[in-house]
């Protein structure tokens, strides 16, 4: 029941539904299946189906806009393709021999797919008409979460055309996408990320779910919990318990931020979203005018997030980029600052250190290069700079075809060859504020000249 409000879900759950089905052959030569549903309170919904396995759309009073297809099929050849035994087993012998009716309905707004099988079965010793339903999430959820709609090839081409450095590294790091996370989950996750590593961040998020998230169910004996809502982390004693669970100073930030978000109107975080990148099931709306400083909505969202505890400029940009859909947000951390110094001439003059002014200048530089999805492009270079992927940047020695020159000097022939060597070099950069050494990788180019002398023939 994705996309259906709580009250409607409860009404459906506890109401009695009477279903009347009429099957007949129409003048068009097709088999029709008309279905009328009347629930408690007299709410009526009618569906007019044809058993030709072609898609048609309808407006359902409860489920919204839905498309569906229907057919007469056999349990052996048609339904046997399904992976759910509940749909395939327990039918009367004549259904096994002669077939059943299968319908597939897909929500066009909320991303679910429901498969129904109509037939006859033995129920407590009585032969009854039975309808079995299995509902699954459709691929809309996956496409939304993994941000699969944008054409990544075209984006890479656009960024490469604007930036030679991107063009050089991107071919070895294809397929990098920015997730479209839930705003609250992104906010909590990035507060946990402060001075942390991926393994510990994952452990912290897991502990939050286990200790404060509602139980979804069990799979192979393992309990699975949903992510906790803000109010679940806003109670007294949460900070102390989180400290005991190993969250350290982040415990205070998480508790205080949860209190602040819980005290605001419902949906406050999502109100900061980019209207062009809304939550699942909501139609996009036109955004504001673009500028290198970012659109007005992005700047407003960034400022609002800075009010929260444990949220600095980088965390705010991470939430804007991955939780609120603002593609121009460019989070600048140690890795990105090193990239800016090495490849984009920062680190000198007024930009010698990572101040607020420099932070803003790096973001503006990248936005001027890559446009409205600058945060996405910057994430490709961020990935390329990680040690875990450094082997992708190792390149072979190249020999220029035109690099062999024959000269004559004092009775000798001299062959002079030119070889360009590219190799991965690890360097250390010291952070000014604490003197910590950080490793970074860069490609070093050398031109090697090889000379061979021999007597002139």
TrEMBL record:
Family affiliation: Belongs to the type-1 OGG1 family.
Reactions accelerated catalytically: 2'-deoxyribonucleotide-(2'-deoxyribose 5'-phosphate)-2'-deoxyribonucleotide-DNA = a 3'-end 2'-deoxyribonucleotide-(2,3-dehydro-2,3-deoxyribose 5'-phosphate)-DNA + a 5'-end 5'-phospho-2'-deoxyribonucleoside-DNA + H(+)
Location of the HhH-GPD domain: 192-379
A Pfam family it matches: HhH-GPD
Example GO molecular function: damaged DNA binding
Gene3D superfamilies for this protein: Helix-hairpin-Helix base-excision DNA repair enzymes (C-terminal) (1.10.1670.10), Hypothetical protein, domain 2 (1.10.340.30)
UniProt enzyme class: lyase
Superkingdom as given in the UniProt entry: Eukaryota
Keywords assigned by UniProt, alphabetized: DNA damage, DNA repair, Glycosidase, Hydrolase, Lyase, Multifunctional enzyme, Nucleus
Keyword check for DNA repair: yes
GO biological process entries: base-excision repair, AP site formation; nucleotide-excision repair
Name of the protein in its database record: DNA-(apurinic or apyrimidinic site) lyase
Compartment(s) of residence: Nucleus
Known EC number: 4.2.99.18
Any one annotated GO CC term: nucleus
């Amino acid at each position: 029941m994705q996309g259906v409000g709580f009250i409607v879900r409860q009404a459906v759950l506890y109401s009695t539904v009477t279903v009347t089905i009429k099957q007949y052959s129409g003048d068009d030569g097709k088999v029709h299946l008309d279905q009328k549903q009347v629930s408690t309170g007299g709410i009526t919904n009618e569906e007019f189906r044809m058993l030709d396995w072609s898609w048609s759309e309808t407006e359902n009073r409860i489920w919204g806009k839905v498309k569906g297809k229907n057919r007469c099929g056999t349990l052996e050849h048609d339904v046997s393709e399904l992976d759910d035994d509940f749909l395939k087993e327990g039918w009367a012998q004549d259904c096994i021999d002669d077939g059943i009716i299968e319908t597939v309905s897909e929500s066009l707004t909320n991303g679910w797919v429901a498969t129904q099988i109509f037939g006859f079965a033995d129920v407590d010793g009585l032969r009854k008409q039975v309808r079995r339903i299995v509902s699954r999430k459709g691929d809309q959820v996956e496409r939304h979460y993994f941000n699969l709609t944008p054409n990544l090839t075209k984006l890479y081409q656009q960024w490469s055309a604007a930036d030679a450095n991107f063009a050089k590294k991107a071919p070895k790091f294809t397929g990098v996408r920015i997730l479209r996370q839930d705003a609250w989950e992104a906010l909590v996750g990035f507060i946990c990320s402060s001075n942390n590593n991926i393994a510990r961040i994952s452990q912290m998020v897991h502990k939050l779910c286990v200790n404060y998230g509602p139980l979804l169910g069990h799979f192979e004996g393992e309990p699975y919990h949903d992510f906790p809502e803000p109010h679940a982390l806003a109670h007294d004693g949460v900070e102390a318990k989180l400290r005991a669970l190993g969250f350290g100073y982040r415990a205070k930030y998480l508790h205080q931020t949860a209190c602040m978000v819980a005290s605001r109107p419902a949906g406050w975080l999502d109100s900061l979203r980019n209207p062009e990148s809304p939550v699942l099931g909501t139609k996009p709306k036109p955004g504001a005018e673009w500028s290198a400083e970012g659109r007005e909505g992005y700047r407003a969202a960034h400022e609002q997030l800075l009010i929260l505890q444990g949220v600095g400029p980088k965390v705010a940009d991470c939430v804007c980029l991955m939780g609120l859909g603002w593609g121009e947000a460019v989070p600048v951390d140690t890795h990105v600052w090193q990239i800016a110094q090495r490849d984009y001439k920062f680190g000198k003059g007024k930009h010698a250190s990572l101040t607020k002014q420099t932070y803003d200048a790096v973001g503006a530089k990248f936005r001027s290069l890559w446009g409205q999805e600058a945060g996405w492009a910057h994430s490709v270079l961020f990935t390329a700079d990680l040690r875990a992927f450094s082997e992708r940047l190792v390149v072979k020695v190249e020999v220029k075809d035109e690099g062999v020159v024959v000269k004559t000097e004092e009775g000798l022939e001299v062959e002079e060859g030119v070889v360009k060597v590219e190799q991965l070099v690890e360097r250390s950069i010291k952070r000014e504020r604490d003197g910590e050494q950080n490793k970074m990788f860069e490609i070093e180019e050398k031109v090697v000249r090889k000379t061979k002398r021999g007597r002139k023939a």
